[in-house]
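User: Here's a protein and a ligand (adenosine monophosphate). What would the complex look like?
Assistant: Let me lay out the input and then the predicted complex.
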Amino acid sequence: MSEPAPQPAPSGGPRLVHTPDELRAALARAGRTALVPTMGALHEGHRSLMRLAREQADTVVVSVFVNPLQFGPNEDFDRYPRTLETDIVACAEEGVDVVFAPTVNTMYPTEQMVTVRAGSMGERFEGAFRPGFFDGVLTVVGKLLHLVGPDVAVFGRKDAQQLAVVRRMVADLNMPVEIIGAPTLRDPDGLATASRNVYLSAEERVSALFLSRALEAGRRVAADGPDAVRAAAGAVLEEAAEATPPVEVDYLALVDPDTFADVTSGHRGEAVLAVAARVGRTRLIDNVSVDL
Ligand code: AMP
């Protein structure tokens, strides 16, 4: 007997599926497919990825899964915002076809013994501050790509190092999918939208604005070369360290967008100026592309 044709939810919204079998049934007659992997708590940044995916494909799948493998023991896995009901509304408004929201047990029914290693690229910057983070990200992204089998997958440039390691995994492991990097969406005051922004108090949010300000200061002097860019952004972050509450910088880096290697003083061409910092208990990352 053939599978029943996937039906949209009665509301006309996306079809909500929780298991690989349900996902397979929902995608049985899918044409060109785009996947947007997320951890939920969907905001405007995620929605811009969905819109890009919508332009690329007949069938748009959004995965919502808070992946325990990419959280360190002292990180916020337990308190990470989980808002599936409103996430589904957001997906409906963006014309998403399928929402795949598996449980941890569904994704990891047994210990995940075989994992993807990000290699040296995943041990720098974010990887240095969050050991194992990129291995966890790549392992779940690899699983999602296999489960959905999309033609394209959309990732935000907001997580520039993640985008770079995902591209590298797809190339190194010959995965048959095109990876698309979407521009960073910002609130009108410049703060990059992020699920973790809900943790910020009003005062912390004001301090958090130093991140985008520092990156802009760096970008403005791109014509003067890498050292000038690092110095200009660094000066703003020194001021940020004195703010109340203070911005505690983990790293500021000017790197090659593909390899995440530091660019040398004489470098010309495109680079990524990336910053990570803590404001109160909240860790924030941001970056801009800089044309040197
Ligand atoms: P997350 O749910 O935080 O894992 O993010 C899911 C996807 O959304 C990732 O590809 C992120 O890079 C992307 N994303 C998160 N915030 C933004 C933003 N402000 N602009 C564009 N993409 C974003």
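Summary: Residues 1-10 have pLDDT under 50 and may be disordered.
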